[in-house]
Amino acid sequence: MLVNERGTGTSVMGAIEVRGLTRRFGSLTAVDQISFTVEGGCIFGLLGPNGAGKTTTISMLTTLLAPTEGSATVAGHDILHEKDAVRRNIGVVFQEPALDTSLTGRENLDFHAMMYGLTREVRDARIHEVLDLVELTEKAEILVQQYSGGMKRRLEIARGLIQHPQVLFLDEPTLGLDAQTRRRIWDYVKQLNRSKGVTIILTTHYMEEADYLCDRIAIIDAGRIVAMDTPARLKDLLGGDVISLQLNEEGHTFATYLQTLPWVKNVTSMDAHITLTVEMGESRVPEIVKLGQNHGVDVVSVSLRKPSLEDVFLQFTGRTIRDQEGGVMDHRRAIVTRKARR
Amino acid sequence: MIEGVAIYVLWLREMKRFVRAKSRVVGTIGMPIFFLAFLGLGFNRVSFPGLPEGVSYIQFLVPGIMGMTILFSSTFAGISVLWDREFGFLKEIMVAPVSRVSIVLGRIAGGATTSMIQGIMILFISLPLGFHLPGGSEIFFALIFMGLISVIFISMGLIFASNMHDIHGFNLVMNFIVFPLFLLSGALFPVENFPVPVRILAYLDPLTYGVDGLRWGLLGISSHGPWIDVGVLLASSILMIALGAFFFERCEC
Ligand SMILES: Nc1ncnc2c1ncn2[C@@H]1O[C@H](COP(=O)(O)OP(=O)(O)OP(=O)(O)O)[C@@H](O)[C@H]1O
Ligand SMILES: [Mg+2]
After folding, report:
1. Which of A90, A100, A116 to probe the B interface (max B CBs under 10 A)?
2. Helices in A239-280 by DSSP H: which ranges?
3. Sheet with A16-25, side-by-side order of all strands
4. How much is the ipTM here?
5. Is there a contact between B177 and B170 (Cβ–Cβ < 8 Å)?
6. Strand pairing of A16-25 and A77-78?
7. Using CA atoms, how far apart are residues A158 and A161, in angstroms rounded to an integer?
8. Hey, what long-range contacts does B141-144 have (CB within 8 A, 24 or more apart)?
């Protein structure tokens, strides 16, 4: 568990406390009994495939959606009974666009700032600051309907920061942004967290983003939290090294065989590609190649690396993050075998 | 709790949108203008039964068409919450630290202002068509009636929007609620001309009192008397705001 030593102005602990939060839509349970605590001043990530329940969770925590069961506090206030107090202390960047496109960028920001009761001088200063951050100063007087998708996204991020919230919710904040802008946003988010002690909860599809930004990550699948820890510990959970094999042909049979070996941990195969986790991977590579030959498959290339968050995600959800981005069909989905731990 | 700033922000937003959305304005006052032009010019020589002594049909019609304009634009202003939801902006409003009542009042303030502007535009457009304001007209009271009509129907729009899931119900509301309310209100001919069962429905329609009040303000003629009109409209306004706020608060976006 990460202890926050830099948290300055914020509450000492438990900026967000979630207990048994559940939301059903008819017969579908979108969020199923999730519980977690986010310490004040931390950056907490929710990782999960499409439809996992991330946005539903955020909607409940930001008072937009009533939970079916369970409860939560945000910045020390109950999301059901102290909605106004919660709203005063949070900033939200929604996954879906939430701008008035018939207003200019500056008007969107100014109206937002007024809603939060900021005075003229403060508004002007903050708007200047956030416009500068997202590099929209030149476009501020243009109607938002003339913005590109990325510009709209940047404007929304700017807007979420204006009121200097105690807790900031970012639902897929950098989706669709180019690498450069994303990097800038990351740095600002990190700096905001460091210097002002803002607690941040974000959902993301980008593993590097979660890895780079988050102090703790919860992997959520089908409405349940399946793993939760620091990125480093999550990666340690897999154990050993990840070996990727490129074969000359489809390799499910060989993958099935590999699973039976006692020193092989997790095997994932997709077409002619096999990924497995092995302790002391370097020493096992020659053996694996030889075993392949015995089974009549040629190993075309081998790579060996330390586990990434991507591997952890795959392990717990049975999907790679790339699968989701293209909305790939089931047959492309990796076949994952979880071996019981010995 | 009522936050003035929030109401002001929502009002200002509506003003900016109104000024920029020329096509929307033309769209909403286009139909009333057609009614005004075709009915007004077409029936002007016909002697209508039930018209007060010495009042020409165009005189009688203009307050009715102003009522119609305000009915349509107000209902639209209320129901346009659906569009805010569709385009995501409603979330931005709902997550703001202001009471839901302020949000409803802000919407009403904005919608009432734009609706009244459109009503006044109809008044001006009617002047070259032969309408004239008699000496004893009380424009100020006409404005009050315009405001009350707006409040009632913006709230009605909000009630519908809060109970609808998407924008597809919009046409249904327009065709089966708003149009009948308009036709029943006596905007086109005196309510007294209806057969009794229809007349009862007409008396249940708040717009009937709105149009009657407008006629009193603009022409000095009235079927029910201005105090009954004001009383009914005021009571309806309070009821509709309360219902609007209740349903709006309850809906999930
Ligand atoms: N208003 C709603 N009515 C019915 N079902 C809903 C509603 N909102 C969400 N759901 C369902 O709840 C589940 C979780 O949705 P949610 O939007 O929280 O997923 P997510 O993790 O944010 O996914 P994504 O990565 O695609 O944004 C989905 O199966 C979705 O279809
Ligand atoms: Mg989502």
Report:
1. A100
2. 252-259
3. A28-38, A16-25, A69-74, A77-78
4. 0.89
5. no
6. unpaired
7. 5
8. B141/B213, B141/B216, B141/B217, B141/B226, B142/B63, B142/B213, B142/B214, B142/B217, B142/B218, B143/B116, B143/B217, B144/B213, B144/B217, B144/B230
Return phi, psi of residue A162, to 5°: -55, -45
| Whether the Cβ atoms of residue A152 and residue A125 lie closer than 8 Å to each other | no
With beta carbons less than 8 A apart as the criterion, state whether A265 and A277 touch: yes
Q: Is B99 exposed, middle or buried (0-12, 13-18, 19+ CB in 10 A)?
A: middle
CATH class held by domain A239-306 = alpha beta
CB A321 within 8 A of CB A310: yes
Domains of chain A, by residue range, sit at 2-234, 239-306
Q: Which CATH class is domain A2-234?
A: alpha beta
Report whether pLDDT(A95) > 70.
Answer: yes
Mean pLDDT of B10-16: 96
**Chain B partners within 8 Å of A65 (Cβ):** 252
State the DSSP string of A8-59: -SS-SS-SEEEEEEEEEETTEEEEEEEEEEE-TT-EEEEE--TTSSHHHHHH
Residue that the structure tokens 């107000």 belong to: B74
Query: Which atom of ligand 1 approaches the CA of A48 most closely?
Result: 21
Distance, in Å, from the CA atom of B197 to the CA atom of B161, rounded to the nearest integer, reads 30
| Overall pTM surpassing 0.90 (yes/no) | no
Pairwise CA distance, residues B79 & A143, whole Å: 24
Q: What digits encode the pLDDT tens for the residues B37-73? A: 888 888 877 777 778 877 889 999 999 999 999 999 9
Q: Which residues line ligand 1 (CB under 6 A)?
A: A 25, 28, 30, 48, 50-56, 95
Report the Cα–Cα distance between both ends of chain B, in Å, rounded: 22
What is the distance in angstroms between the Cα of B26 and the nearest Cα belonging to chain A?
17
A90/B5 touch (CB, cutoff 8 Å), yes or no = no
**Residue B238 and residue B213 in contact, taking contact as beta carbons nearer than 8 Å:** no
**A180 Cβ contact partners less than 8 Å away, ≥ 6 residues apart:** none
Q: Which residue, A55, A56, A21, A59, is CA-closest to A37? A: A21
d(CA A274, CA A253): 11
Check: CB of residue B77 under 8 Å from CB of residue B157: yes
In the structure, what pLDDT confidence band is assigned to residue A328 with cuts at 50, 70 and 90? very low
Q: Chain A partners of B92 at a C-beta cutoff of 8 Å?
A: 94, 98-100, 112, 159
Contacts of A101 (CB under 8 A, 6+ apart): A143, A144, A145, A147, B87
Identify the band that residue A152 occupies on the pLDDT scale cut at 50, 70 and 90: very high
Residues B13, A98: C-beta atoms closer than 8 Å:
no
Boundaries of every domain in chain B: 2-250
Give residue A27's identity as a one-letter amino acid code: S
* Partner-chain residue, chosen from A65, A97, A143, that has the shortest CB–CB distance to B252: A65
